[in-house]
Amino acid sequence: MTTPMAWLEVSVEVNHEAAEAVAEVLSRHAPQGVALDLGSEGELSPTVTVKAYLAVDADINTRRRRVEEGLWHLHQIWPVIPEPRFRSVVDQDWTATWKEQIQVLHLGRRIVIKPTWRIYEPKPGEVVLEMDPGLAFGTGLHPTTQLCVTALEDLVEPGTTVLDLGTGTGILAMVAARLGAGRVLAVDNDENAVIAARANMATNGLTDAIDLALGSLENVASSFGLVVANILAPVIVAMAGSGLADRVASGGALVVSGILEEQIESVVTALESTGLAVTERRVQDEWAALIAWRS
Known about the structure:
The protein has about 300 residues and is α/β, with parallel strands linked by helices. The protein has two domains: about 5-100, Alpha-Beta Plaits; about 135-295, Vaccinia Virus protein VP39 (Rossmann fold), CATH 3.40.50.150. The chain has helices at about 15-25, 60-75, 95-100, 145-155, 170-180, 190-205, 235-240, 265-270; strands at about 5-15, 35, 45-55, 85-90, 105, 110-115, 125-130, 160-165, 185-190, 210-215, 225-230, 250-260, 275-285, 285-295. The strands form three sheets. The chain has a seven-stranded mixed β-sheet, with helices on both faces. Strands 2-3-1-4 form a four-stranded antiparallel β-sheet, sandwiched between helices. Strands 5-6-7 form a three-stranded mixed β-sheet. Helix 1 (about 15-25) packs antiparallel against helix 2 (about 60-75) and helix 7 runs parallel beside helix 8 (about 265-270). The N and C termini lie far apart (about 70 Å).
């Protein structure tokens, strides 16, 4: 008879804004993946519990200490992050427990993100994407991703050409494609992000609908009816000075996010200095998305 494997469960309850940062720290020590317990099915609760499982072996005390140290350093930057909770778990198949905790996630008005193993019957008009959680980053929890998804729902029309700068896991490019965009180009300068995005696009049957490339703004030669960049404010400002407006077609729109409220004015100034007109500022949990147009 096989002895059940022992695991140490690490859990941290945080708001959505901090969940991805916590998941990134935990994932360094839990290669099997990080689970996000969202609470009730289909609804975004105010907090999310990030969980990871460490195999109990000869190195468990070292890994536990490194997890605690990593989260302590994160707490210095982000005081809302509490100390982790630890719980021993003995389970021959802990992944079954892990999977039970992963719910579908509703973004915007129509977008549903679900793990591949869950059955979900979409309501009329809903768009379903399948993304299995390895790392939490890019699965839609962060306010900036939610702001961008809502903007895409408003701006993507059938045939719209879309450029996704800094695509990460590819979520925004896939949303655009499923909303009926024409040509979609997704680029990222992180090779690991491109690998993850390629796998997600294959899972959703979107490999032929999206051109995916390793690169950044300087590697894009043409212009698009809609450009989306969910990056960081300093990067957006730098891109504004490097021809970002030229990638927006005449009459086209630009959506930028990853901007803290106190950074809005500097980004607006940078964009409008290139001839773009910022027409909307959308804010959620101290993060902002800006929508600008090229006349």
